[in-house]
Amino acid sequence: MAEVSAEARIEAPAEKVWAKLTDFSVYGEWNATHTSFPKGPPASLEVGGQFEENMKLMGFPAEVTWTVEDLADTRTLAIRGKGPMGVNVGTRYTLTADGDATTVRVDGEFTGAAVSLMAGKLKDSATAALNESLRKLAGLVT
């Protein structure tokens, strides 16, 4: 298993950050690993809902089928996906209001046999992507 996380304080209220985080029409503008939604972006988010995403991590393309596991408006979005080579991926966004700003934390995990072979590089690549994504997200909402 490889676990990664990143956190940033964004100078905008949680509602504004959440609106960008869940606006899939601009997902590629801030999410550093996103390349496309092969069947179109999710029309809405609901627990149990699924969508497919093409991603690139460590320079390799991957298609992931995501399922929404947890959803609490303006606070939490957790998705779990199945990718190539038996790799399972989990991502949790947690927003915490802090006055007129919001602390955004992203936690990710990768499991599966292929992960053990490249855990170190995967952690480094995914952590860099998370930090870049949070920087870009902040730029879109501030």
How would you sum up this structure, described in words?
This protein has a single domain, classed as 2-Layer Sandwich (Alpha-D-Glucose-1,6-Bisphosphate, Chain A, domain 4), CATH 3.30.530. 29% of the residues lie in helices and 44% in strands. The chain has a seven-stranded antiparallel beta sheet, with helices on one face. This is SRPBCC family protein. Pfam families: Polyketide_cyc2 (PF10604). It comes from Streptomyces tabacisoli. InterPro entries: Polyketide_cyclase/dehydratase (IPR019587), START-like_dom_sf (IPR023393).
Q: TL;DR?
A:
The chain has 142 residues and is α+β, with helices and mostly antiparallel strands.
Please report the number of helical segments: 3
Structural class comes to alpha+beta
Based on the structure given, which CATH architecture is correct? 2-Layer Sandwich
* CATH class descriptor: Alpha Beta
CATH superfamily: START domain
CATH topology: Alpha-D-Glucose-1,6-Bisphosphate, Chain A, domain 4
Query: Residue ranges: pLDDT <50 for 5 or more in a row?
Result: none
For the largest beta-sheet, the strand count, sense and barrel status come to: 7 strands, antiparallel
Shape: globular
Number of strands: 7
Measured by DSSP, the beta-strand proportion falls in 35-45%
Return the domain count.
Answer: 1
Radius of gyration of CA atoms, rounded to a whole number:
14 Å
- Our measurement of the CA-to-CA distance between the termini, rounded to an integer number of angstroms, reads 35 Å
Strand order of the largest sheet: 1-7-6-5-4-3-2
Helical fraction? 25-40%
Oligomer: single chain
Mean pLDDT: 93
What are the secondary-structure elements, in order, as H or E? EHHEEEEEEH
